Amino acid sequence: MSSHSPEPWLSVVIPSHRGELWINSSLKSIAAEAVPGIEVLLIDSSPTRTTLDMAASFADRLNLRIFERRDLDSWHVKTNYGVEIAASQHVCWLGVDDVWMPGRARAVRGWIEASPNSPLQLGASVIIDRNGRQLGHWRCPLPADIALAADFVTERLLIQNFVAAPAPVFRRDAWLDSGGLDSSLWYTADWDIWLKLAAAGPVYYHDEATIGFRIHGSSLTMTGSNDISDFKDQMRTVLERHLPRLSGSAKPVEAAAVASIAVNAALASASAGEYRALGPAAWGVLRLGPAGAARYWKHSRLADRLWPRLRAKLTGSLE
After folding, report:
1. 53 within 8 A of 23, measured Cβ to Cβ
2. Directed axis angle between helix 150-157 and helix 189-198, to 10°?
3. CA-based, 20 to 30 A from 98: which of 22, 42, 228, 248?
4. How far is Cα 243 from Cα 236, in angstroms, rounded to an integer?
5. Residue 212 has what DSSP assignment?
6. CATH classification at residue 77
């Protein structure tokens, strides 16, 4: 950081591996905000310097700190490292293939100023395809702009991870106190960390979509679910880890969460051309009864997550 840069009020951590296809778009979207006090930390493990050299061209437009760390072999470890060395008390992370939407910096500054002690502030997102075309909105099933208690958020978040990872802003100290991302959860570590931060409450949700969450054929959300058994285990681990925090509401939440895991696994199988699990998964939701099925439908945000992917697949933009 130069002596002329203001003390950062926000640190943006970007973990990267072979991000040369996307890095220009992600950094350009931050630079377009032209707001002082934002530092960007790029932690890259690529085998070549291509991504780093492309990022370096933004050094005159961003307060940019670049780290070549080929020894950090996962996005979890790189993200944890970035949070540890961040200069600001408030942090967010950005996938190298994701982007900020116009107005993100203004919105986040307002969130922080209104509730500086909140350990976790959630936001809505726009789902985009590999070409940046908007496919749909992804919102959280939470009331906006009010303090939300830990149990209230946990009950809903355990049913489904409805948070696009680049959208939240969190306190650095709360992240470090929680232990950060669990690298053994290669797929569900973000879900786990939101639940850990929610436990420190209060949480706020903001309904303005300030992130473009990109889906494409090589993204983790598309490739990570190939091993269905391991995929289920990842989700069950998070459920079993955080369900004991609930008391009277644990049973209905657990039932809806188990049904949600079955639906997620069935959809992952269907994306690979195997459709046999769809019927049993749908039956599992119906067995929850009218109230339970409504709870699942509302809190899973299934339509928000599924429709954009169907659109992308139909137009061939998942390739």
Report:
1. no
2. 160
3. 228
4. 10
5. E
6. 3.90.550.10
